[in-house]
Amino acid sequence: MKKTGFLSVFLFVFLSLTCFVMIAWADSSDYRVGGGDVLKVTVYDNPDLAGTVRVASDGTILFPLVGQLQIGGMTVSQVADHIAESLADGYLVNPQVSVFIEEFRSKKAVIVGCIATPGLYELSGPTTLLELISKAGGLTKDAGETVTIKRKGSEESVLTVDLRSISVQNDGSLDVRIMDGDSVFVAKAGMFYVTGEVKKPDTYKIVEGTTLIKAISMAGGFTNIAAKSKVRVIRKQEGTEHVLENVPMHFPILPDDVIVVPESFF
């Protein structure tokens, strides 16, 4: 009995000195709180302490009983732990604290280039590259398949993402998570030009594996009076234009190539 009584007292003292923290937040416990975020805080068995608080620009919040707390840069779990420890310091015994992110406001990223609405965007929680592109109105028609992400950290790093790989492979792991302070640039696609006796003379976007026959097909195909055997490709190389004749239909097309389909006179 004495042993059981001692154990009970020990457990009571241990639990009284330990703050149990319950944390719930989407799926990104590595998110770090910053100015503008809105937190929903509950303290078990203390409904008068429950409520929402907005993080000030200096990273602080005002919480009942304990006053001002500095939480900027902490993860959600660290915030809950900090509040619980502060409440346990002379106010509550065994406080159980839950913290949720109700509104994400502190994380931002810039997206520019071939995007419908370039600019600075708030990251409302975990945000992937495709989600950011969607927020910015989507890609323009001349957008290429390459996106460059400049990321700040202890050292600036540069990530290159192939949008085609994400869509073709349908692999969510290739859809990069956008971080606070990222600068995203959507490159312009390489373009080629088709003129002459095709049904839709115009400028077209280079895609992987664009050959002469594919380029002609993109331009609607030959007209009835096209000289199919006399197609020329005008290509700039080191600032000089070169006219390539007798080009085979499997010939690869490069950015800025001009495809000329002449009229047949026979």
Could you write a compact summary of the structure shown?
The chain has 5 helices and 18 strands.
Features:
266 residues, alpha+beta, 5-stranded mixed β-sheet, 5 helices, 33% strand
Write the layout of secondary structure elements.
Blueprint: H1 2-17, E1 21-23, E2 38-43, E3 51-54, E4 60-63, E5 67-70, H2 76-88, E6 97-103, E7 108-113, E8 119-122, E9 127-128, H3 129-135, E10 143-151, E11 157-162, H4 163-169, E12 177-178, E13 183-188, E14 191-196, E15 202-205, H5 212-218, E16 232-237, E17 240-244, E18 258-261
Parallel strand pairs: 1-6, 7-13, 14-18
Antiparallel strand pairs: 2-3, 2-6, 4-5, 7-8, 9-12, 10-11, 10-13, 14-15, 16-17, 16-18
Explain what the structure shows.
It is rod-shaped, with a radius of gyration of 31 Å. It has 5 helices and 18 strands. Mean pLDDT is 85; it is low at 6-28. Helix content is 19%, strand content 33%. A hairpin with a 2-residue loop joins strand 16 and strand 17. The chain starts with a helix and ends in a 5-residue tail after the last strand. It has helices at residues 2-17, 76-88, 129-135, 163-169, 212-218; strands spanning 21-23, 38-43, 51-54, 60-63, 67-70, 97-103, 108-113, 119-122, 127-128, 143-151, 157-162, 177-178, 183-188, 191-196, 202-205, 232-237, 240-244, 258-261. It is α+β, with helices and mostly antiparallel strands. The strands form 5 sheets. A 5-stranded mixed beta sheet has the order 8-7-13-10-11. The chain has a 5-stranded mixed beta sheet with strand order 15-14-18-16-17, with helices on one face. A 4-stranded mixed beta sheet has the order 1-6-2-3, covered by helices on one side.
